[in-house]
Amino acid sequence: MSSERGNAARKRSQKHKNVTAFRNNRHDTSPRVQKMNSVVHEGVCMRCKEVLEWKVKYGKYKPLTHARKCVRCQQRTVLRAYHTACIHCAVRLGICAKCGTEGGVVTPLGNQGDKEEPGDQGGDQGGDQGGDQGGDQGGDQGGDQGGDQGGDREEVHGGDHGGDGEDGSDDDASDSDGPLAESAT
């Protein structure tokens, strides 16, 4: 190829084709590379996530050694490489922590905050059980206590509500008042 303008088109295929894909941990199995491969990119838009994944895949990702300054709050709270905004500002403003664009955040950082971590672990388990068993009932009632009990409750209540509609809920109220009233007398 010459440097002549307009003569940059190549007419032949690549001479040395890659047989196997590049792996960044083939020869380097240091803890730094393992940590780099296990990084989860959260709080960024799809484009920034693809860029960060490319950097990790080809060994170009360089983790931060010191906290950097957030461009929004001017505090040294940015703890992730290539990010420009801290976790708190990104969540508060709903922006990508890397490029700063609004909306389009793939996975929000709010789920991974230090303050919310213990509650989210129990909430995720309860949410999964509640979502699988009783979306109509509410996931928190049978979430952490026992999946079988929540399922039994759903079958009993689900059958009454599903067949009768609003009348079924009134019947449930009268049924629950009836046995209590009978046992009290």
Molecular structure report:
- The chain has 185 residues and is mainly α.
- It has a domain at 31-112.
- It has 6 helices and no strands.
- The chain has helices at residues 31-37, 46-57, 87-93, 117-133, 147-164, 166-184.
- α5 (147-164) crosses α6 (166-184).
- Residues 150-164 have a biased composition (Basic and acidic residues).
- Residues 109-185 are annotated as: Disordered.
- Residues 165-175 have a biased composition (Acidic residues).
Strand elements, count: 0
How helical, in percent, are the residues?
A: 40-55%
Shape: extended
Rg for CA atoms = 28 Å
Biggest β-sheet strands, sense, barrel? none
Q: What is the element string, with H for helices and E for strands?
A: HHHHHH
Number of helices: 6
**Roughly what is the average pLDDT, rounded to an integer?**
70
In short:
Residues 109-185 are annotated as: Disordered. The chain is mostly helical and 185 residues long. The chain has helices at residues 31-37, 46-57, 87-93, 117-133, 147-164, 166-184.
Secondary-structure map:
Elements: H1 31-37, H2 46-57, H3 87-93, H4 117-133, H5 147-164, H6 166-184
Helix pairs in contact: 5-6
Region (Disordered): 109-185
Biased composition (Basic and acidic residues): 150-164
InterPro entries: DUF2039
Please give a handful of descriptors for the protein shown.
single chain, 185 residues, mainly alpha, 6 helices, extended, DUF2039
